[in-house]
Each structure stands twice: as structure tokens, then as C-alpha cells.
Amino acid sequence: MASIRRTRAGRWRVTVRLPDGKHRSATLNTRTEAQNWGDATEAAPGARFDWSPDGLTIFVPEELITMDMAHKLEGVLREALGAEP
Fold first, then answer.
1. Is the pTM of this model over 0.70?
2. Which of 47, 52, 65, 2 is nearest to 28 (CA)?
3. 53 within 8 A of 67, measured Cβ to Cβ
4. Do 40 and 29 contact (CB within 8 A), yes or no?
5. Origin, by domain of life (predicted)?
6. CA-wise closest residue to 44 among 12, 68, 78
């Protein structure tokens, strides 16, 4: 589960503990963005998200994802993008 706290500057700091014991963190503008980032990072810890003018590309190494993780990642993305379940 992601740890989310508000910074003194009013932004949101989210920290996720990965299965290997390492931590990843990000500072975002809204709590919703922080929660979505935390959920996506927990669902696919080795994923790489690349933004371009054409849209979002997500790369998840095959050895790092299970069907359960893929399903959770799909749900997080649908919620973040406002898509129907």
C-alpha cells in the first residue's frame, strides 16, 4: 500500500515499497494523482511509462507481471483515464 502525505508546499508525496524492499517515490500536484501513481507502481513495479505527443506508452517486462497484476494495472488505468469498467 502506498504511503501518501502532504508536503509543506501543498503537493502530495507518495512512496511505494517494492517487492525487493526498495522504495520508489514521487511528488505530485493532487492526492488523486498521487494515489493513481502509487496504485500503478504497486501493480507493475518494473513498468516504464513514457509520455509523448502521441500518447502514453507503457512497457512492463514480461517476467515482472502476473495476470492478477495485469488486471489491477488495467483497472488503475481505466480509473485514471475515466473509462468504463
1. no
2. 2
3. no
4. no
5. Bacteria
6. 68
